[in-house]
Amino acid sequence: MKKKLIIIGIESSCDETAVSIIKNRYVLSNIIIHQEIHKKYGGVVPELASRLHDKNLPIAVRKAIHTAKINQNEIDAVSFTLGPGLIGSLLVGTSFAKSLSMGLGKPLLTVNHIQAHILTHFIKNANINNNYPKFPFLSLVISGGHTQIIKVNDFFQMKILGSTLDDSVGEVLDKIAIKLGFYYPGGPMIEFFSKNGNCKKFGFSKPYVKKLNFSFSGFKNHVLQFIKKKSKDNPCFIKENLSDLCASIQKIVAEILLEKVQKATINTDIFRIVLAGGVSSNNEIRKTFISFAEKNKKWEIFIPKNQYTTDNGAMVAITGLLKYKKKLFDSIHVTPYSKFKIF
Ligand code: KG4
Ligand code: ZN
Prior knowledge:
41% helix
């Protein structure tokens, strides 16, 4: 009988210390230790993030092995995020993964964080009919660090068709959220407070950006200036309009993303769309894409499971497993990269 592969995935590129164990594409454990300390600073403090990864990684690994009910010697390989991300955080994860790999005597598999977000769609879920996206497809990666449209030809053959020229969509939501009085990360708070809001109340203009690129900094400044001006006239403006502001901002962001992806489908003649990254857990964005796909029969839309949208170890483990199958092992001498690298 063919051996079932057991892979551990370690994610430490930003502020989540995450470790997962998967066995033949099924997730046995998915441990995430959130670093709450950043809330009060309004964003991730790199130095604090590195220190906390150092403290939390051994705890997360022990918990992941315990929850998976396996013996550490059953692990076939150690996969971990090599980049992009915060360099200090990545260095901690890299050193930890290298030590674990040497300690267990098992191969090392490096993972690109963006690729991992996309490949979460190949995790198997028990008791459901798993429907994986067929190649080629277009992936819209929307997170705190990235906003990209990527053409995915195969597991490890991807091409970036468009990127943000400035801020990422998650970053913009987080910055606007701070102005609205929320904690970091503000994306989920904007979604929460938009529930009973009127999304047509505030009509912020959409940026015009060439080709398949995005630009969100102009939109961000427009919203921030608008809130500042209105609050000067009426100090209770935010409080009185919170739900409507959140709903309007969220709606426009969803429309900007949809319009660009529409353009990408026409340019490439590919109508299979795969959402990925933390911002893809937003229900308004999901609904916008799903309802467009319902009206356009050519479209096929894939939405990630909620637990695999924001940073997690399972996305790293599945990518590691797919690399293992192709024998794409890495050397112990690899070093992390903070900036985006071509796949
Ligand atoms: O993928 P992720 O966990 O980390 C990066 O790779 O950057 O994404 C984090 C981002 C944050 O900006 C956060 O505000 C946003 O995802 N986010 C959301 C939601 N949940 C997380 N944005 C809007 N609505 C949400 N429900
Ligand atoms: Zn991420």
